[in-house]
Amino acid sequence: MPKNALYAQSGGVTAVINASAWGVIEAVRAHPAHFGTCFAARDGILGVLHEEIIDLDQEDPFTLAALRHTPGGAFGSCRFDLGDAHRDRRQYERLVEVFQAHDIGTFFYNGGGGSMDTALKIARIGDLMGYPITAVGVPKTIDNDLDCTDTSPGFGSAAKFIATVVREASLDVESMHTSSTKVFILEVMGRHAGWLAAAAALAQEYDGQPPMLILFAEVPFDEADFLTNLQRTIERHGYCVVVVSEGLKKKDGSLYAVAQTHDVYAYTQLGGAVPRLAEMIKKETGHKLHWSVVDYIQRAARHLASKVDVEQAYAVGKAAVEGVVAGHHSFMPVIRRESSVPYRWVIDRVPLERVANVERGMPLEFISNDGYGITQACRDYLRPLIEGEDYPPFLHGLPCYPRIRGVLRPKRCREFRVNDA
What we know:
By secondary structure, this protein is of the alpha/beta class. 34% of the residues lie in helices and 19% in strands.
């Protein structure tokens, strides 16, 4: 009798993570000889530890299929890292307890580099605890910082959204710059990588339009040099759009701004670079300005998703399952670019050890010599990732995003509190 499969989502969600979920669910159901039932954990690995297992057979089939065009994390996500297997052994004993209770033989974890580390730790449970479990990572992150893959599912849609809103907002600023706003500043996500900030440059229809300065997470921020370039741009064009990575660093390597820290999960929430930057610009130049932080909107905007991104998100979910059926384990599906024009890609796989807790920043050759723009090589890399539209269905003028019922399986294990592990 084949064992069951368990799928879970982790970290910040994307506009297309649920497409990966549907890729996994549909593929598991297509291989009844290899898998039993496909379940989903509520709120990521925390749902496994708390034994909150969603019975997908209780869901409407049309709702599950609609995951392909639904944003957010349909099953709930979390920011929680498993501890060391020897120091925090109770966590692993609990995982085995839950896996055994629900006859789980395969675990699919959909997330970024930290989530791949969690998947890797679970993959090693067989050696540590004597319970054989196949664990596979399914890639996802709008930051585009996963290693060994051409792009991370979720990035293309966020990049398309950012480039679009920058193009539209710049036209607003251009309309009013002679008598009003001279500077518009937009803060985008990007903890250690400036990929999303770079995507804003795709808004430029031709060189210099709209006039733009990009502050990358990879380039130490020089206040004096920035002000000089800002003033020069305004003198030449009359206005300037500034796009800032939330992970902007000072010359000493410290973060330019931090929203808050979370001691429990060792997670630093970034944000706040824009108001600080705006205050400095206003003080030093006197220019009227406006600023905005796209925050969750950039990763939730499914109505403007990249068709390429949707297809890749679904493909990596499906490939995760097919890789297990083919006998592979402890791996993450990756996207390999075969050509840029036309954009052709295939799915490959790499061991989880290669990607767990590894962050890929932008190559220096993708950043212009002055540090405030992108090169043609970067533009050629980015353009195919935002291609195509994949609109969700609309009703009464708004997109339709069905919600799952989330019926939990009856608990078979005793209560467990993570803080007691």
